[in-house]
């Protein structure tokens, strides 16, 4: 098994940044889902509500995050910034205090996206003094895992073989195939021993690190969004086809496995790394 793609999504719901190498942390790849859009009440906002967020492109360098869109000048945010304004935000069952990136960021988003439910959107940055621990039922013994603004796990692993099986089924139905970008994974591998095997618990051992898949990723309408155009060409696909292909006993549309880091904090991970997959926890 070979790693074929590494991707981070610095701002939750915006486009990703492809990498050739990175480092591993208990909270995920550096800067992944470190920022998030929230509404007036502090609730997270994603492509579920605004599919056009896919067309906002983040760029990271050593000093700043830059968000670009053809519709207006870029928004630049220093990575090291003396932020003091904390605001309560909510993400699924998590309530944490986050740093508000301020009026300029909110105005930039409003100029591009308009008001959301009658009020400006805000951009918040994860406060690393906070913690979003993974639920204990997905951990063993003394294991610990945390995430920033990802939905629930620090890593999402997907395989090209599963995508090929999905696209074969889509084409057989007369539907257009979809790209891996629809599934917003951090780590893409070429294949397990069969398509959709990454929905089951596995340990993935690479050079100096071990990841563990602990939960199949149940997919939502975000996978129906064309990530290049920010539209839903077919609001039913590929969800319906994933439901028909589901190998699990529980019903739903699943693609990819949610994972934690077991060993190798600060270790390097790179496209081309060979991984050994061992079934089970």
Name the descriptors.
about 280 residues, M1 Pyruvate Kinase, Domain 3, five-stranded antiparallel sheet
Structural notes for this entry:
The chain has 281 residues and is mainly β. It folds into two domains: 3-28 and 134-279, PK beta-barrel domain-like (M1 Pyruvate Kinase, Domain 3); 35-131, no CATH class. The chain contains three helices and 20 strands. The protein has helices at 103-113, 160-172, 239-245; strands at 3-8, 17-19, 21-23, 35-38, 44-45, 57-60, 64-69, 72-78, 86-91, 94-100, 122-125, 132-133, 146-147, 155-159, 187-189, 202-206, 209-218, 254-263, 268-270, 276-279. The strands form five sheets. An eight-stranded mixed β-sheet has the order 2-1-15-14-18-17-16-20. Strands 5-4-11-10-9 form a five-stranded antiparallel β-sheet. A three-stranded antiparallel β-sheet has the order 6-7-8, covered by helices on one side. The longest helix has 13 residues, at 160-172. The radius of gyration is 18 Å and the shape is globular. The chain starts with a strand and ends with a strand. 40% of the residues are buried.
């Amino acid at each position: 098994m070979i790693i074929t793609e590494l991707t981070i999504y610095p701002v939750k719901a915006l486009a990703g940044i492809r990498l050739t190498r990175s480092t591993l942390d208990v909270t995920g790849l550096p800067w992944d889902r470190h920022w998030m859009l929230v509404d007036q009440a502090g609730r997270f906002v994603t492509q579920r509500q605004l599919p056009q967020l896919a067309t906002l492109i983040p760029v990271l360098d050593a000093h700043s995050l830059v968000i670009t869109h053809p519709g207006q000048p870029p928004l630049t945010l220093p990575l090291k910034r003396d932020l003091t304004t904390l605001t309560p935000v909510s993400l699924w069952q998590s309530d944490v205090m986050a740093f508000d990136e301020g009026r300029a960021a909110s105005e930039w988003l409003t100029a591009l996206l308009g008001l959301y439910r009658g009020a400006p959107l805000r951009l918040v940055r994860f406060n690393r003094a906070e913690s979003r621990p993974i639920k204990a039922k997905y951990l063993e013994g003394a294991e610990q895992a945390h995430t920033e603004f990802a939905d629930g796990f620090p890593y999402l692993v997907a395989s090209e073989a599963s995508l090929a099986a999905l696209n074969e089924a889509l084409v057989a139905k007369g539907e257009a195939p979809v790209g891996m970008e629809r599934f917003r994974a951090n780590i893409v591998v070429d294949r397990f021993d069969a398509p959709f095997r990454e929905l089951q618990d596995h340990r993935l051992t690479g050079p100096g690190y071990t990841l563990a898949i602990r939960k199949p990723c149940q997919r939502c309408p975000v996978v129906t969004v064309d990530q290049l155009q920010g539209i839903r060409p077919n609001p039913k696909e590929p969800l319906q086809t994933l439901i028909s292909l589901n190998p699990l006993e529980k019903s739903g549309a699943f693609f990819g496995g949610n994972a934690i880091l077991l060993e190798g904090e600060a270790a390097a991970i790179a496209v081309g790394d060979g991984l050994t997959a061992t079934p089970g926890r």
